[in-house]
Amino acid sequence: MITLNINKKNYRIEADPNTPLLWVLRDHFGLVGTKYGCGIAQCGACVVHLDGEAVRSCVTKISRAQGKKVVTIEGLSESNNHPLQKAWLELDVSQCGYCQAGQIMSAAVLLREKKNPSNQDIDDAMAGNICRCGTYLRIREAIQLAAKEAGEF
Amino acid sequence: MEKINANQGRRAFLKTSLLAGGGLMLHFSGLAKMVVPVTDEGITPAVQWIEITGYIKITPQNNVTIICPNPEFGQNVMTSLPMMVAEELEVDWNKVTVEMGPHDNLKLGPQFTGGSNSMRMYWRPLREAGATARNLLMQAAAQEWNVPLEELTTRAGMLFHEKSGKQGTYGQFASKASVLPVPKGVKLKEVKNFKVVRNSQKNVEGAKIVSGKPLFGLDYMHEGMLIAMIQHPPAFGMKLKSFDGSAALKMPGIKNVFSLKLYEDDFEQAGFDVRTFNELLVVVGKSTWEVMNARKKLIVEWMPAGDVKDTMAGRGGKREVIVPGELENTSVQLQKMQEYAKKPARQLRKDGDPETAFKHAAQVIERTYNAPFLAHNCMEPMNFFAHVTDDKALLVGPLQAPGWTEPTLCKVLNLPPEKVEIQMTRMGGGFGRRAYGHYLTEAALISRKVKAPIKLIYSREDDTTYGIYRPMYTATYRAALDANKNLIAFHVKGGGIPEHAIHANRFPAGAVDNYLAEGWEIPSNITIGAFRAPRSNFNAAAEQSFLDELAEAMDKDPIDFRLELLKRAKENPVGKNNEYDADRYAGVLKLVKEKSDWKGPEHDKYSRGVAAYFCHNSYAAHVVDLTLREGEPYVERVFSAIDCGIVVNPDAATNMVQGAVVDGIGNSLYGGLTHKDGVVEESNFHKYRIIRMHEAPAKIEVSFVHNDIDPTGLGEPPFPPVFGAVANALYKAKGHRFYQQPFTSPQPGTRNV
User: Fold this and answer.
1) Distance, CA of B383 to CA of B396 (rounded, Å)
2) Are A104 and B210 within 8 A, CB to CB?
3) A99 and A61 in one domain?
4) Beta strands B383-388 and B393-397: pairing type?
5) What residue ranges of chain B have pLDDT lower than 50?
């Protein structure tokens, strides 16, 4: 039996410790906000926070997540009030929306590390998140807006 | 615009009905089947004004729900189509709830997301629905208050009789309105009075997207649901020989391992029944990871399929097609294309006497362009949920056109349409790929076989290597100039595997006295399908690069040269069936010239390229400003000018154009699939390069031509000319032309990029 702490709640599961966190989140805990895009850590749709670090859950085994704090898009804020979520809605970023949870989760770590990221910082931090609809310009803008509005969160 | 006679018996009449608990549900029933002719575009239904449209639900408490008929894949129809209803209905947009409609072509129309057709096809029907509902509510209030209808006004879900000071909510009159006779020909608002449409409205699902709510097919859950994955042959031209699933079956969580035949031998395929492999292996289990692991334990023998006979349904009756059995190689394909390009081809259009003109030309310029297969690479891989029992089927998932797959499901499952329910989820991208419902048929057959609800999931590799690609294309352009450098003849000979990309009636047809368009094809077992602006997505690139070279040879500015040709097409057009409006085409060129400050001082900082195109009823022009960073091309900024008629949701439309530009840059610079012995070499994103944020421009400035023309589409039109503009900008940056896509691959006649 493996216990995982996800979004401040404890979940218990009988599963192969090698199971990627992505599939445990989606198939067992109904936390489908974290998406499957490629399975080989290339697209970023599966990004979650593991003790605050952005990790690709499609290649992160649940054994690695044991004893750590996992945060998914569902747990990023109480009611869409994370500065990134607010900026995303303010600027109407999404097109199909499939990649956006991963984009936000990657950006959240960037903003924690760099309060006023430059465009270069953003490009570097977000290079691992693919958006097939091409909303990159708005994602960049939203990150900048969120940085401006962030203050304390 | 064609108006279909709506009097088709009782079916044509607007029906209203009471919702349980009171309230008004307004729906139209109309033509049971809308004929969708396949034209040059691939998927272009004629614009038909039909009394078929969506539900409006109003509760006594004045809650308004508007149903969206067309499935959503990022083009924002879930917001913009209901906006049209809300506009005429006169409700407060911010209080409206939007729901995705069920599959019901009788009530909701064609429900086909594709061909950039949603806005165009639903513009009148949805507005009529809103206006008629409003009229019914006014009638109900007029009766109750005993006042003339003409004295009533409405605003934000309320009715007013100013003379007497009476007022009420729509909710109060909804029940009464629902039993009134439905009026015909209710007047629609004037464009200048729009309050909702033509104003930017936020994506109605935005909040759900950013909080990770279940929205996509892959997110769908059903009690007792199992997970299924397929294993398809590793190469085009191969099939299953034998398999041993015993090791896989022993793996934890696994329930079934079997082979599945999709269509029976005599099955007549319709246009969207395309499938690459008719026999697949299937693994069914309790969870995705368990199934993924078990799949690896399959012991399979594959063998060459040889030539395969497929039966295609068609208007003249069924016909048989031989699918060649060769295991194809890209290098061989390229060689074959070169050979075929020299052979006689099928004439698509001829004006004047091109042969003579070329014979006597002072100068002939000939160029050949090539582009590879492209995979759609929707971020959400193919998937569908199916729960099939003996007497009915429920299917839920991402699909662009339920009406095209339902007949196939009925045939394959031997169920009548009333027993087959298809629910459409939000799609994580479509681009044309999800118009081909083979994965629904697969899911349905799997569910029936295992007697359980299942969700079929394709892995990224399954998806990318499955096929239904954008074809591999080539085109050779020739232009004849006279001694004064006038363009006297134009010839395009296009080919492809397995079809060519030529739109013979597009510009510059109509602008050149002597014009010839030809096409040829090489059959293949590599399956293809509609890909964002089919054919146009290559055609524009080649043609717009060629026009650029021509302009240079004629010492003309590229924009001015196009405008001259368009002037000719307008004032003294050559031939018939010129598929574009020369004024509107010129309009976007003029607008982009202005907005980009085409010849302005900043011009020297960048390598500039321009291109324009007409497709799917809209016009687009781009100026691309490119630089080289350590020799690598980087698009810094783009100026886009669009004419799509009335822009229903300006900010969302801008987002779409920006997305199409990024998509165009990415595909033109990096996109492409290659084959080795039938095997796709780019199976996932580590090999198939997708444009990323640091490769996207810092700025894409979008301008719309302002007019009151009924809206046409925007999903596809901005996409094709991006390729041409990038090629033309690259020429300026590198000093040589770009003839082979993707543009970061080695170019003919150069050492390398």
Assistant:
1) 9
2) yes
3) no
4) antiparallel
5) 1-22, 27-54, 752-753
Could you say which of B221, B288, B655 has the minimum Cβ distance to residue A95?
B655
pTM of the model: 0.94
> What does the pLDDT read at residue B28?
43
B226 half-sphere exposure, CB direction, 13 A CA radius:
25
Q: Do B217-310+382-457 and B2-197 fall under one CATH topology?
A: yes
**Predicted pLDDT at B26:** 54
Q: How would you class B650 by CB atoms within 10 Å of its CB: exposed for 0-12, middle for 13-18, buried for 19 or more?
A: middle
User: A32 to chain B, minimum CA–CA distance in Å?
Assistant: 6
Residues A101 and A127 placed together within one structural domain of the fold: yes
Q: Do A137 and B206 touch (CB under 8 A)?
A: no
Pairwise CB contact (< 8 Å): A131 & B693:
yes
Number of domains in chain A: 2
Q: Among A30, A97, A137, whose Cβ lies nearest the Cβ of B215? A: A97
User: In which domain, by residue range, is A15 found?
Assistant: 2-75
- Asked if the Cβ–Cβ distance from A40 to B227 is below 8 Å, we say no
CATH of the domain at A44: 3.10.20.30
pLDDT digits (tens, 9 = 90+) for A35-49: 999 999 999 999 999
Neighbours of A18 (CB within 10 A): 11
Span A70-97, average pLDDT:
97
Same domain, A93 and A71: no
Residue carrying structure tokens 């599939």: A23
Q: In this structure, what CATH number is given to the domain that contains residue A114?
A: 1.10.150.120
CA closest to B293 among chain A residues = A19
> In the listed set A27, A46, A75, which residue is the last one of a domain according to the structure?
A75
Q: What integer pLDDT is reported at residue B524 of this predicted model?
A: 97
- Please check whether the domain covering B520-734 is classified as CATH 3.30.365.10: yes
Q: Mutation test of the interface with chain B: which of A95, A120, A124, A139, choosing the one with the most B Cβ atoms within 10 A?
A: A95
- B206 contact residues in A (CB cutoff 8 A): 88-89, 92, 94
pLDDT at A152 over 70: no
Domain boundaries, chain B: 2-197, 217-310+382-457, 520-734
- Please indicate, yes or no, whether residues A98 and A56 belong to a single structural domain of this protein: no
Contacts of A80 in chain B (CB under 8 A): 207, 210-211
Regarding whether A99 and A57 lie in a shared domain, the answer is: no
Residues A93, A70 share a domain? no
Residues of A in contact with B252 (CB under 8 A): 16
Contacts for B576 with CB less than 8 Å, ≥ 6 apart: none
- Topology given in CATH for the domain delimited by B2-197: Aldehyde Oxidoreductase; domain 4 (3.30.365)
Q: What's the per-residue H, E or C state across B664-705? A: HHHHHHHCCECEECCEECCCCCCCCCCCCHHHCCCEEEEEEC
pLDDT for position B175: 81
pLDDT band (50, 70, 90) for residue A151: low
End-to-end CA distance of chain A: 34
Cross-chain Cβ contact A23/B381 below 8 Å: no
Chosen for mutation from A57, A96, A110, A144 (greatest number of chain B CBs closer than 10 Å) is A96
Residues A13 and A55 both lie in one domain: yes
Sheet of B632-643: strands edge to edge? B607-615, B618-629, B632-643, B699-704
A62 with A98, same domain?
no
Domain stops at, among A23, A44, A75 = A75
Residues 6 or more apart whose Cβ sits within 8 Å of residue B335: none
CA distance A92 to chain B (A): 6
Mark yes or no for CB contact B693/A134 under 8 Å: no
pLDDT of A12 strictly over 70: yes
- What per-residue confidence (pLDDT) applies to B422? 97
Domain B217-310+382-457 has CATH 3.10.129.10: no
C-alpha closest to that of B371 among B448, B251, B471, B461? B471
With CB atoms and an 8 Å threshold, state whether B212 touches A34.
Answer: yes
Q: Which of B607, B615, B621, B720 is nearest to B667 (CA)?
A: B720
Residue of B nearest to A26 (CA): B219
